[in-house]
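User: Just a sanity check before I run the rest of the batch. Below are the structure tokens for the first item. I only need the designed sequence back.
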């Protein structure tokens, strides 16, 4: 089985949501004997020096990349208003990148070509022209949903109007493209329902975030208590928005609960404004070298998302590391978890306060929830089982008559 994966960013190292999902897919498919070719846009926002990648999985992949500038250009964004294209998506298309992809398709024949997310779909016409492979689209998010929810929370009218405009363009593009594939993978059941409501008539399956549990070694002796932590890329707007809300509306009261309580904030591209919150009780670490080690060293995970779509990989990682997670309903969307069993759901400042108070005054409670979370994660998010199911679907697609 020869598989070509198209990615809008290099999935090495697997240190955040999208790379973790793609990396574990590659690793699982390789273990089943698939031959993997990977074409990645190496975008300016998440640029990776390919020469610095040292990974046994990387060595087994036929890797190709193209460096592309996706920085927002005010004039381009303004001109885009008068076109019929989605600016969020069109920034990822480049004529020279298209030529690199063409060459790959001319030199090799593939059984399956999988588009990892919406931002590589602009290359779909090129793929259709130069390949007879079965085409798969994996929706890591329902992209327009992210912007629609951000617009709903935006109070500044001009910005809200523009966010609504971006959302409408994205939705039109997603609906237009979704039925041009042979197979669609949603990342959660709620996202599957949204795709159906968008008019998806293509064969549709759900593949949740999958992890290699060998990587998630738990050492409770290294876990400090009482500690809270937040971990997430801070250049993703929903993360920034949610953390700001927590720090402004909730943390001041939490900080007074216990003089020994510490809240640690970590993540890539930590913006300057968050360092202004730094105090004896709140430690802003920025990007951490080893996310798993960081998660292991803290007790209670805080995920205060107010918008977003898809499935939060960091919550699945927290569950894998046996953490008690306190999250909004939005953050836990699509994850098979139950409030009070393997997660605590909090949607208001008061609910967060009460949940945190319960955890720091009843240590057995957060430990019990963490143990249940690990069991739930192992049941639903094991990488090899997911890869086998995906490989079987590939087999059905390639054996089916056109």
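Assistant: Here's the designed sequence for the first item:
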């Amino acid at each position: 089985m020869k598989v070509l994966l198209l990615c809008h960013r290099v999935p090495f190292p697997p240190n955040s949501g999208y790379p973790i999902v793609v990396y574990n897919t590659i690793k699982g498919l390789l273990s089943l004997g698939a031959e993997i070719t990977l074409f990645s846009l190496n975008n300016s926002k998440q640029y990776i020096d390919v020469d610095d990648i040292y990974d046994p999985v990387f060595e087994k992949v036929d890797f190709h990349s193209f460096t592309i500038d996706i920085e927002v250009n005010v004039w381009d964004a303004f001109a885009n208003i008068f076109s019929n294209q989605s600016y969020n998506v069109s920034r990822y298309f480049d004529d020279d990148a298209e030529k690199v992809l063409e060459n790959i398709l001319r030199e090799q024949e593939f059984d399956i070509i999988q588009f990892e997310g919406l931002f590589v779909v602009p290359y779909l016409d090129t793929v259709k022209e130069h390949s007879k492979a079965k085409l798969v689209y994996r929706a890591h998010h329902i992209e327009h949903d992210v912007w629609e929810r951000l617009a709903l929370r935006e109070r500044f009218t001009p910005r809200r109007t523009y966010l609504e405009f971006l959302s409408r363009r994205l939705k039109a593009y997603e609906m237009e493209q979704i039925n041009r594939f042979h197979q669609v993978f949603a990342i959660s059941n709620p996202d599957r329902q949204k795709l159906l409501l968008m008019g998806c008539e293509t064969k549709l399956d759900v593949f949740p975030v999958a992890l290699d549990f060998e990587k998630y070694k738990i050492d409770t002796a290294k876990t400090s208590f009482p500690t809270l932590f937040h971990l997430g890329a801070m250049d993703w707007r929903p993360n920034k928005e949610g953390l700001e809300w927590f720090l402004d509306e909730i943390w001041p009261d939490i900080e007074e609960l216990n003089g020994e309580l510490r809240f640690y904030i970590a993540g890539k591209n930590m913006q300057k404004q968050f360092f202004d919150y730094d105090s004896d009780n709140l430690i802003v670490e920025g990007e951490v070298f080893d996310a798993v080690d960081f998660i292991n060293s803290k007790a209670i995970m805080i995920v205060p998302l107010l918008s977003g779509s898809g499935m939060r990989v960091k919550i699945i990682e927290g569950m894998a590391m046996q953490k008690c997670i306190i999250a909004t309903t939005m953050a836990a969307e699509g994850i098979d978890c139950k409030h009070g069993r393997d997660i605590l759901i909090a949607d208001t400042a008061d609910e967060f306060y009460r949940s945190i108070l319960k955890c720091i005054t009843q240590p057995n409670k957060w430990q019990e929830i963490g143990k249940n979370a690990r069991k739930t994660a192992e049941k639903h998010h094991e990488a090899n089982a997911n890869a086998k199911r995906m490989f079987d679907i590939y087999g059905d697609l390639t054996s089916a008559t056109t």
